[in-house]
Amino acid sequence: MNILLVCQGGMSSSFVVKKIKEAFKNKGECVHIISKASMEIVDYIDETDIVLVAPNVLYEIEDIRETCTQHGITPVILPMELYGRMDGEALRVFIINSQDGGNDG
């Protein structure tokens, strides 16, 4: 599973990426996740299965949604409480559940 976390490229997104990787690894599941600024989506979206949107870039959601839709992907907005807690396992479950269509943006 290839995940692109759209963010502002700060430290918080680095921690979130690390926590998500650890949670998937602890369950024996393979995931590749990177964080990039919204202007870089087009450079990575073709190799992406899931686009997660950090709460701090919601002001750009319309542009993000348009880019994702053009590539057949529905962006998944990360709730602030999950993002802020940096609970890798809760984020892992959220990501898995989002694939069932329950958390789309």
From TrEMBL:
<protein>
    <submittedName>
        <fullName>PTS system cellobiose-specific IIB component</fullName>
    </submittedName>
</protein>
<dbReference type="InterPro" id="IPR013012">
    <property type="entry name" value="PTS_EIIB_3"/>
</dbReference>
<dbReference type="InterPro" id="IPR036095">
    <property type="entry name" value="PTS_EIIB-like_sf"/>
</dbReference>
<dbReference type="GO" id="GO:0009401">
    <property type="term" value="P:phosphoenolpyruvate-dependent sugar phosphotransferase system"/>
</dbReference>
<feature type="modified residue" description="Phosphocysteine; by EIIA">
    <location>
        <position position="7"/>
    </location>
</feature>
<dbReference type="InterPro" id="IPR003501">
    <property type="entry name" value="PTS_EIIB_2/3"/>
</dbReference>
<dbReference type="GO" id="GO:0016301">
    <property type="term" value="F:kinase activity"/>
</dbReference>
<keyword id="KW-0813">Transport</keyword>
<dbReference type="GO" id="GO:0008982">
    <property type="term" value="F:protein-N(PI)-phosphohistidine-sugar phosphotransferase activity"/>
</dbReference>
<feature type="domain" description="PTS EIIB type-3">
    <location>
        <begin position="1"/>
        <end position="105"/>
    </location>
</feature>
<dbReference type="Pfam" id="PF02302">
    <property type="entry name" value="PTS_IIB"/>
</dbReference>
<keyword id="KW-0597">Phosphoprotein</keyword>
<keyword id="KW-0762">Sugar transport</keyword>
<keyword id="KW-0418">Kinase</keyword>
<keyword id="KW-0598">Phosphotransferase system</keyword>
<keyword id="KW-0808">Transferase</keyword>
<dbReference type="InterPro" id="IPR051819">
    <property type="entry name" value="PTS_sugar-specific_EIIB"/>
</dbReference>
